[in-house]
Amino acid sequence: MTPEEILKGLYDQTLVGNAPAVLDLTNAGLDAGMTPETLLFDALIPSLEEVGARFERGDFFVPEMLIAGRAMAGALERLRPLLAETGVATLGTFVMGTVKGDVHDIGKNLVNIMLEGAGFHVIDLGVQVSPEKFVDAIREHKPDIVGFSAFLTTTMPMFKANINALVKAGLRDQVIVMVGGAPVTQEYADAVGADGYAADASTAVKKAKDLMQ
Ligand code: B1M
Protein backbone atom coordinates (compact mmCIF):
# COMPACT_ATOMS: atom_id res chain seq x y z
CA MET A 1 0.00 0.00 0.00
CA THR A 2 1.22 3.51 -0.73
CA PRO A 3 1.23 6.17 2.04
CA GLU A 4 -1.68 7.87 0.28
CA GLU A 5 -3.69 4.63 0.34
CA ILE A 6 -2.90 4.14 4.02
CA LEU A 7 -4.05 7.68 4.87
CA LYS A 8 -7.23 7.30 2.81
CA GLY A 9 -7.91 3.91 4.40
CA LEU A 10 -7.39 5.32 7.88
CA TYR A 11 -9.72 8.23 7.16
CA ASP A 12 -12.44 6.00 5.67
CA GLN A 13 -12.23 3.24 8.30
CA THR A 14 -12.27 5.75 11.20
CA LEU A 15 -15.35 7.34 9.65
CA VAL A 16 -17.20 4.02 9.75
CA GLY A 17 -15.75 3.08 13.15
CA ASN A 18 -13.92 -0.06 11.99
CA ALA A 19 -11.51 -0.28 14.94
CA PRO A 20 -9.58 -3.43 13.83
CA ALA A 21 -8.96 -1.96 10.35
CA VAL A 22 -7.88 1.37 11.88
CA LEU A 23 -5.37 -0.41 14.09
CA ASP A 24 -4.08 -2.52 11.16
CA LEU A 25 -3.68 0.57 8.98
CA THR A 26 -1.95 2.45 11.80
CA ASN A 27 0.54 -0.42 12.06
CA ALA A 28 0.90 -0.53 8.27
CA GLY A 29 1.64 3.20 8.23
CA LEU A 30 4.28 2.89 10.95
CA ASP A 31 5.83 -0.12 9.19
CA ALA A 32 6.01 1.95 6.01
CA GLY A 33 7.98 4.61 7.89
CA MET A 34 5.16 7.16 8.22
CA THR A 35 5.32 9.35 11.33
CA PRO A 36 2.67 9.16 14.09
CA GLU A 37 2.01 12.87 13.50
CA THR A 38 1.19 12.25 9.82
CA LEU A 39 -1.24 9.46 10.71
CA LEU A 40 -2.89 11.66 13.34
CA PHE A 41 -3.06 15.03 11.65
CA ASP A 42 -3.55 13.90 8.03
CA ALA A 43 -6.10 11.11 8.59
CA LEU A 44 -7.40 10.34 12.10
CA ILE A 45 -8.26 13.86 13.30
CA PRO A 46 -9.73 15.05 9.95
CA SER A 47 -11.89 11.92 9.93
CA LEU A 48 -13.30 12.67 13.40
CA GLU A 49 -13.96 16.24 12.24
CA GLU A 50 -16.01 14.80 9.38
CA VAL A 51 -17.84 12.57 11.89
CA GLY A 52 -18.72 15.73 13.85
CA ALA A 53 -19.87 17.52 10.68
CA ARG A 54 -22.10 14.57 9.73
CA PHE A 55 -23.53 14.50 13.26
CA GLU A 56 -24.34 18.20 12.99
CA ARG A 57 -26.07 17.64 9.63
CA GLY A 58 -28.11 14.77 11.08
CA ASP A 59 -26.43 12.17 8.85
CA PHE A 60 -24.72 10.49 11.84
CA PHE A 61 -26.10 9.81 15.30
CA VAL A 62 -24.48 9.13 18.70
CA PRO A 63 -23.71 5.42 18.00
CA GLU A 64 -21.74 6.35 14.86
CA MET A 65 -19.86 9.03 16.82
CA LEU A 66 -19.15 6.51 19.55
CA ILE A 67 -17.69 3.80 17.31
CA ALA A 68 -15.63 6.32 15.35
CA GLY A 69 -14.31 7.67 18.67
CA ARG A 70 -13.43 4.15 19.81
CA ALA A 71 -11.60 3.41 16.57
CA MET A 72 -9.59 6.62 16.97
CA ALA A 73 -8.87 5.84 20.64
CA GLY A 74 -7.42 2.43 19.67
CA ALA A 75 -5.05 4.06 17.19
CA LEU A 76 -4.10 6.71 19.76
CA GLU A 77 -3.10 4.03 22.27
CA ARG A 78 -0.87 2.44 19.60
CA LEU A 79 0.72 5.84 18.84
CA ARG A 80 1.00 6.95 22.49
CA PRO A 81 4.47 5.53 23.25
CA LEU A 82 5.84 6.90 19.98
CA LEU A 83 4.42 10.38 20.54
CA ALA A 84 5.51 10.42 24.17
CA GLU A 85 9.10 9.34 23.44
CA THR A 86 11.30 11.86 25.16
CA GLY A 87 14.64 12.34 26.77
CA VAL A 88 13.65 15.71 28.18
CA ALA A 89 13.84 16.29 31.92
CA THR A 90 10.60 16.94 33.77
CA LEU A 91 9.42 20.44 33.00
CA GLY A 92 6.69 20.54 35.61
CA THR A 93 3.56 18.79 36.85
CA PHE A 94 0.27 19.11 34.97
CA VAL A 95 -3.06 17.97 36.44
CA MET A 96 -5.59 17.45 33.65
CA GLY A 97 -9.26 16.53 33.47
CA THR A 98 -12.41 16.80 31.39
CA VAL A 99 -14.94 18.88 33.30
CA LYS A 100 -18.03 17.62 35.12
CA GLY A 101 -20.87 16.56 32.80
CA ASP A 102 -18.55 15.90 29.85
CA VAL A 103 -17.35 12.46 28.73
CA HIS A 104 -15.20 13.45 25.72
CA ASP A 105 -11.63 12.39 26.32
CA ILE A 106 -9.85 11.80 23.01
CA GLY A 107 -8.72 15.43 22.69
CA LYS A 108 -7.67 15.56 26.33
CA ASN A 109 -5.72 12.31 25.98
CA LEU A 110 -3.92 13.65 22.93
CA VAL A 111 -2.93 16.80 24.82
CA ASN A 112 -1.68 14.60 27.69
CA ILE A 113 0.44 12.51 25.32
CA MET A 114 2.02 15.60 23.76
CA LEU A 115 2.65 17.15 27.20
CA GLU A 116 4.33 13.94 28.36
CA GLY A 117 6.37 13.94 25.17
CA ALA A 118 7.54 17.46 25.94
CA GLY A 119 8.65 16.48 29.45
CA PHE A 120 5.68 17.29 31.69
CA HIS A 121 4.62 14.87 34.42
CA VAL A 122 0.88 14.52 33.70
CA ILE A 123 -1.71 13.41 36.25
CA ASP A 124 -4.91 12.61 34.37
CA LEU A 125 -8.07 12.78 36.48
CA GLY A 126 -10.19 11.38 33.64
CA VAL A 127 -13.61 12.63 32.59
CA GLN A 128 -16.58 14.17 34.43
CA VAL A 129 -14.19 15.70 36.99
CA SER A 130 -15.98 17.77 39.62
CA PRO A 131 -14.58 21.04 41.01
CA GLU A 132 -14.04 19.27 44.36
CA LYS A 133 -11.94 16.58 42.69
CA PHE A 134 -9.77 19.20 40.97
CA VAL A 135 -9.29 20.97 44.32
CA ASP A 136 -8.32 17.71 46.05
CA ALA A 137 -5.88 16.82 43.27
CA ILE A 138 -4.23 20.24 43.42
CA ARG A 139 -3.83 19.93 47.19
CA GLU A 140 -2.37 16.43 46.80
CA HIS A 141 -0.07 16.85 43.78
CA LYS A 142 0.77 20.59 43.95
CA PRO A 143 0.93 20.88 40.13
CA ASP A 144 2.40 23.85 38.29
CA ILE A 145 -0.57 23.83 35.90
CA VAL A 146 -4.13 22.54 36.03
CA GLY A 147 -5.90 21.95 32.72
CA PHE A 148 -9.65 21.89 32.18
CA SER A 149 -11.00 20.35 28.96
CA ALA A 150 -14.59 20.88 27.81
CA PHE A 151 -16.09 19.79 24.50
CA LEU A 152 -19.67 20.98 24.83
CA THR A 153 -21.02 24.49 25.00
CA THR A 154 -23.13 23.25 27.91
CA THR A 155 -20.09 22.13 29.96
CA MET A 156 -17.78 25.10 29.25
CA PRO A 157 -19.33 27.04 32.18
CA MET A 158 -17.65 24.47 34.45
CA PHE A 159 -14.36 26.35 33.83
CA LYS A 160 -15.73 29.24 35.88
CA ALA A 161 -17.14 26.86 38.51
CA ASN A 162 -13.72 25.18 38.80
CA ILE A 163 -11.89 28.50 39.07
CA ASN A 164 -14.38 29.66 41.73
CA ALA A 165 -13.70 26.45 43.65
CA LEU A 166 -9.95 27.11 43.49
CA VAL A 167 -10.47 30.66 44.77
CA LYS A 168 -12.67 29.39 47.61
CA ALA A 169 -10.04 26.80 48.56
CA GLY A 170 -7.32 29.49 48.59
CA LEU A 171 -5.46 27.74 45.75
CA ARG A 172 -5.98 30.08 42.80
CA ASP A 173 -2.64 31.92 43.30
CA GLN A 174 -0.73 28.65 43.55
CA VAL A 175 -1.57 27.12 40.18
CA ILE A 176 -1.67 28.21 36.54
CA VAL A 177 -5.04 27.48 34.91
CA MET A 178 -5.20 26.36 31.27
CA VAL A 179 -8.40 25.62 29.37
CA GLY A 180 -9.20 24.05 26.01
CA GLY A 181 -11.55 21.87 24.00
CA ALA A 182 -13.37 22.04 20.70
CA PRO A 183 -15.85 24.89 21.38
CA VAL A 184 -13.50 26.98 23.58
CA THR A 185 -12.03 30.27 22.34
CA GLN A 186 -9.39 32.69 23.62
CA GLU A 187 -12.20 35.17 24.38
CA TYR A 188 -14.04 32.60 26.49
CA ALA A 189 -10.83 31.67 28.32
CA ASP A 190 -10.20 35.35 29.10
CA ALA A 191 -13.79 35.85 30.23
CA VAL A 192 -13.61 33.06 32.81
CA GLY A 193 -10.21 34.21 34.09
CA ALA A 194 -8.01 31.36 32.82
CA ASP A 195 -4.28 32.01 32.45
CA GLY A 196 -3.95 30.22 29.13
CA TYR A 197 -5.85 28.68 26.24
CA ALA A 198 -4.79 26.52 23.32
CA ALA A 199 -6.75 25.33 20.32
CA ASP A 200 -4.87 22.05 19.79
CA ALA A 201 -2.41 19.69 21.40
CA SER A 202 0.81 21.11 19.99
CA THR A 203 -0.20 24.69 20.81
CA ALA A 204 -1.13 23.47 24.31
CA VAL A 205 2.43 22.25 24.84
CA LYS A 206 3.90 25.53 23.63
CA LYS A 207 1.48 27.52 25.81
CA ALA A 208 2.22 25.38 28.88
CA LYS A 209 5.96 25.92 28.42
CA ASP A 210 5.46 29.70 27.98
CA LEU A 211 3.28 29.90 31.10
CA MET A 212 5.97 28.12 33.15
CA GLN A 213 8.48 30.92 32.49
CO1 B1M B 1 -19.58 14.41 21.00
N1 B1M B 1 -19.87 16.24 20.47
N2 B1M B 1 -21.24 14.42 22.04
N3 B1M B 1 -19.19 12.54 21.32
N4 B1M B 1 -18.22 14.53 19.68
C1 B1M B 1 -18.81 16.90 19.70
C2 B1M B 1 -17.80 17.59 20.63
C3 B1M B 1 -19.63 17.91 18.80
C4 B1M B 1 -18.81 19.17 18.39
C5 B1M B 1 -20.20 17.20 17.56
C6 B1M B 1 -20.94 18.15 16.66
O1 B1M B 1 -22.09 18.46 16.91
N5 B1M B 1 -20.30 18.63 15.61
C7 B1M B 1 -20.85 18.23 19.73
C8 B1M B 1 -20.69 19.42 20.67
C9 B1M B 1 -21.46 20.65 20.21
C10 B1M B 1 -21.26 21.77 21.16
O2 B1M B 1 -21.63 21.71 22.30
N6 B1M B 1 -20.66 22.85 20.64
C11 B1M B 1 -21.01 16.93 20.49
C12 B1M B 1 -22.20 16.51 21.14
C13 B1M B 1 -23.41 17.41 20.94
C14 B1M B 1 -22.28 15.34 21.93
C15 B1M B 1 -23.48 14.81 22.73
C16 B1M B 1 -24.27 15.89 23.51
C17 B1M B 1 -24.38 14.04 21.75
C18 B1M B 1 -25.68 13.55 22.35
O3 B1M B 1 -25.69 12.74 23.23
N7 B1M B 1 -26.76 14.09 21.83
C19 B1M B 1 -22.81 13.78 23.69
C20 B1M B 1 -22.37 14.42 25.03
C21 B1M B 1 -21.92 13.41 26.04
C22 B1M B 1 -21.31 14.13 27.25
O4 B1M B 1 -20.14 14.44 27.24
N8 B1M B 1 -22.11 14.36 28.29
C23 B1M B 1 -21.60 13.41 22.88
C24 B1M B 1 -20.99 12.16 22.97
C25 B1M B 1 -19.91 11.75 22.20
C26 B1M B 1 -19.36 10.34 22.21
C27 B1M B 1 -19.34 9.69 23.61
C28 B1M B 1 -20.22 9.51 21.29
C29 B1M B 1 -17.94 10.54 21.55
C30 B1M B 1 -16.81 10.80 22.59
C31 B1M B 1 -15.81 9.69 22.65
C32 B1M B 1 -14.66 10.06 23.55
O5 B1M B 1 -14.17 11.19 23.60
N9 B1M B 1 -14.22 9.06 24.26
C33 B1M B 1 -18.14 11.85 20.80
C34 B1M B 1 -17.29 12.29 19.73
C35 B1M B 1 -16.28 11.29 19.21
C36 B1M B 1 -17.37 13.60 19.21
C37 B1M B 1 -16.59 14.21 18.01
C38 B1M B 1 -17.16 13.61 16.73
C39 B1M B 1 -15.09 14.02 18.00
C40 B1M B 1 -14.37 14.57 19.24
C41 B1M B 1 -12.91 14.27 19.13
O6 B1M B 1 -12.42 13.33 19.74
N10 B1M B 1 -12.19 15.04 18.28
C42 B1M B 1 -16.91 15.75 18.19
C43 B1M B 1 -16.92 16.50 16.88
C44 B1M B 1 -15.69 17.36 16.68
O7 B1M B 1 -14.95 17.66 17.59
N11 B1M B 1 -15.53 17.86 15.51
C45 B1M B 1 -18.08 15.75 19.10
C46 B1M B 1 -10.75 14.81 17.99
C47 B1M B 1 -9.88 15.48 19.04
C48 B1M B 1 -8.42 15.18 18.74
O8 B1M B 1 -10.10 16.86 18.93
O9 B1M B 1 -11.60 16.89 20.92
O10 B1M B 1 -11.20 19.04 19.65
P1 B1M B 1 -10.69 17.73 20.13
O11 B1M B 1 -9.38 18.05 21.03
C49 B1M B 1 -8.36 18.98 20.61
C50 B1M B 1 -8.61 20.43 21.06
O12 B1M B 1 -9.93 20.65 21.50
C51 B1M B 1 -7.54 20.69 22.10
O13 B1M B 1 -6.49 19.78 21.76
C52 B1M B 1 -7.08 18.56 21.32
C53 B1M B 1 -6.08 17.83 20.44
O14 B1M B 1 -5.63 18.60 19.35
N12 B1M B 1 -7.82 20.50 23.53
C54 B1M B 1 -7.15 21.22 24.47
C55 B1M B 1 -8.63 19.63 24.14
N13 B1M B 1 -8.52 19.75 25.47
C56 B1M B 1 -7.62 20.72 25.70
C57 B1M B 1 -7.13 21.25 26.90
C58 B1M B 1 -6.18 22.26 26.85
C59 B1M B 1 -5.72 22.75 25.62
C60 B1M B 1 -6.19 22.23 24.41
O15 B1M B 1 -5.65 22.84 27.95
C61 B1M B 1 -6.09 22.40 29.21
From TrEMBL:
Keywords: Cobalt, Metal-binding. Pfam families: B12-binding, B12-binding_2. Residues 91-213 form the B12-binding domain. SMART domains: B12-binding_2. Residues 1-91 form the B12-binding N-terminal domain. The keyword Lipoprotein does not apply. InterPro entries: Cbl-bd_cap, Cobalamin-bd, Cobalamin-bd_sf, Met_Synthase/Corrinoid, Meth_synthase_dom. This is Cobalamin-binding protein. The lineage of its organism: Bacteria, Bacillati, Actinomycetota, Actinomycetes, Micromonosporales.
